[in-house]
Sequence to fold (528 residues):
Amino acid sequence: MSEPLLAIESVHVSYGRVQAVRDVSIEVPEGGLVALIGANGAGKSSVLAAAAGLVRPKSGAVRLDGRDITRWPAHRRVAAGLVLVPEGRQILGSLTVAENLRLGAYRRRRQAAPEAEMYDLFPVLAERRSLPAGSLSGGEQQMLAIARAMIARPRVMLLDEPSMGLAPKVVDEVFAAIEQIRRAGVTVVLVEQNARRALRTADTAHVMETGGTAHSGPAEELLSDPRVVKAYLGVD
Amino acid sequence: MVQQLANGVFAGSIYALFAIGFTLVFGILRHLNLAHAAIFTAGAFAGIELAVRFDLPVWAMFPAVAAIGAVLGVVLERTAFRPLSGRDDEHFAGLISSIAFGGVLIAVLHARYGTEPKSFPQEYFPNRLYEIAGVRVTLTQIVTLALALALMLGLAWLVSSSPMGRAMRAVAENPGAARVLGVNVGLVTAGTYALSSGLGAVAGALLALNLGQAGRGLGASIELIGFAVIILGGLGSLWGAMAAGLVLGLAEALTVHWLDSTWKGMVAFAVLFAVLVLRPRGLFGHVKVREV
Fold:
């Protein structure tokens, strides 16, 4: 088996005395889509935060393309092509749509895609490029958050709850965008509460429970694993 | 009368340049930096020392003063603000520690330059006098206005249109989101202080050049005027600081014209009072609800 592009190796994350992630290991092959599912507070977002450099793990390592990046600050990881689309979108509402996109390319000016390419992909953003991003609807803001990460032409995109709080139709659009990201050859780690949707999109998945990994395997197998079905997918 | 107004514009451009650095730090970082006047004073003394000891011509003196101010700004951020970041009382504590930094800086200036004011060398700057439409202006005043305007417009362009400026505004709105986008928040913070203090130091050297000399009290004399400018312009508003600086310079000039110069010192207080009563947001300020 070839070396994974992103590897999270026995990572522990604590906030003060609260242990959020305990001994989690995840390997993401180049071009793969790995989903992290599980209940609220299971530690999924903390795993992404550790991968993106927003929290320093208590122990364990993060590797990008074999290089140990555990001690790299967040901005250096972005420069290396490891980009996070954060939970809650974190759009800069007082800046225009175009300025948000340009900030997405801030660390990767050489590799970045032209702004026009993002407008082709997300026409709704083109119409609003000179408006403050805060004036967009929730779904449009999520598209902007994804576009802002894509403009950097990342190697790995970490998506934290991209469908949270969105109407079903908009959720469809978000997952369509994720498919496109994938087709563009970007490696994806997807954290989702919408477990069924996530498992249908992913190659492999990890089910997290109270900070640890409960089940792992090919997404298809987990979709039919009775324990996963019972706890996370409900009865069909 | 027109002569007084012209003098008001020249003074106002220095007020504006002093205030814009202060308001920049507030606008981006929400820090009230009370060491700004001390850095202004340090800029004045640095300019004089560079002229006296190193014979630096004016065109080289100002960039050097800006660089010294920028370095002081970075040291200020490192010592007075960064160690406090993350505390609940970060902003208030920073305000206090910046007063302390300013006090230390003034004491250092005292130790180095003594109590007597220091002067620029005789004929350091050509004392040419021009008459434009009946108004007498000196070359120093023209250079002052031109340099102050150029620096302020340059800053406004930098903040509104450059990648660095976008990163600064991203940090102003949401440091966490800026970090996710790859903005080095620590570097932007230090850069903001460097810019602010560089401009403040140049403003100090400009005032000293106009007066021909500088004393330890130079910063204290402009501090209150600077606050009136910032409040009038709206805290954090760059254009507001520019406009309000000129307004205050003109208000002082008219006070001198209609009353006499003993009333000049009252203008800043009167403006502060009037703004706080009538329009606490300032002329250009917006009501901003900040998320916690």
Summary: Chain A touches chain B through 26 residues (CB under 8 Å). Chain A has a mean pLDDT of 92. Chain A has one domain: 6-89+138-233.
